[in-house]
Amino acid sequence: MNEVLRVAVVGHTNTGKTSLLRTLARDVGFGEVSDSAGTTRHVEGLRLMADGRPALELFDTPGMEDAIALLEFVDALAAPGERLDGLDRLARFLERPEAHARFEQEAKVLRQMLASDAALYVVDARDPVLPKHRDELELLAACARPLLPVLNFVASKDAKVDEWRAALARLSLHAVVSFDTVAPALDGERELFDTLATLMHAHRPALQRLIDARAREADERRATARRLVAELLIDLAARRERLEAGEDSAQALQAAVEALRDAVRRREQDCVEALLRLYRFRPGDARAAELPLTDGRWDDDLFNPETLRQMGLRLSTGVAAGAAAGVGIDLMTGGLTLGAAAALGAIAGGLWQTFGHYGERIAAKLRGHRELTVDDVILRVVALRQHRLLAALDGRGHAALAPIEVGEAGAADEVAERWRKADLPYALDKARAHPEWAGRQGDDDERAAAIDELATTLH
Known about the structure:
The chain is of the alpha/beta class. Helices cover 50% and strands 12% of the residues. The chain has 17 helices and 11 strands. It has a 6-stranded mixed sheet, sandwiched between helices. A hairpin with a 2-residue loop joins strand 2 (44-50) and strand 3. The longest helix is centred in the middle third of the chain and has 35 residues, at 204-238. The two termini are 44 Å apart.
């Protein structure tokens, strides 16, 4: 027995055979998918791997275009009184010139069926059951290979799932799988491979290995996706646009607002593109609607509890610790003048080294600088948009042609309701006190911990 299960993907023209392979392979570039009939003209194959080893080979075949005429032709090949079974009749047909001319496409399908261990018969569930489908199935059954019907486009309101299941049962095909290649169910792939393993018991270990590997990959992909979104939100919460002292005109304020808006848009788009790459879609497969950005907010994060905690940790170090304590008290009581002469003297003498990056911000306060930050409501909107995008990517097949529209609206769920109504996660409050986190990468353990903490709120 061949260790790798070989499966032909067969069916009538334009039922979604190539679409099925694209979705199973997570490859938007496999074959050609369009609404025109007969797009696939040759047999193409792909291999699905599990833990670095091949587990399943799938072969895309041309559509069967004239099964009614072919069945009549094949039946007529037997001489009067001659009894030929299905395989013998097909063998005789494949030796005939018609297999390379009038029935060339059907011959390609039958040859691949005979070279395979089993076949998936793809049905467009929106189509009515017609005589041509019954004749196709009779020809395919003559190949003496296990045949698993796959009902495609079942998410459509026009799908005739019950009609198709009843018709297939009358042909003794009781094992049937519903798998929408445009909007597959989260467990659709598992059901497909599980049912195939039932028909091909000798190959169950390899198929189970594939099922388990794909489940692990899906979990890892979702975890990575949530972390990408968490990093986006941390970056936006930490981001600041400074308005220098004396630049308080309407023009200067507008310029600062626009700079912040542009930075938010670019950063969100970077995240969208990273998510599309992660899920192996193309850059244009999602379109983000315009963010409803407000004018930002003036934020005095020097009084953020996280800022004070960070500063407090530094008060016991440095030669100016005593003066620093005085500054800390003034800050905690809301003083921006840092009033005490001793404190100002300590600043002049190098207190900034004691406060680290906070020293620069305290000096900015003294000089009258102001900082513009991203509104809380924008953080909520971005979180909701990315949450919706993740849900869409999880339920999107790689044969889908219409782009995902990324907006705030979407079905209500626990995560969405939390982002709409509950307090923002503490990790974002913490990020507001760390402007150095914005756009930063690398081994900042505290930033990484905040991202990991925030990622847990996204599922």
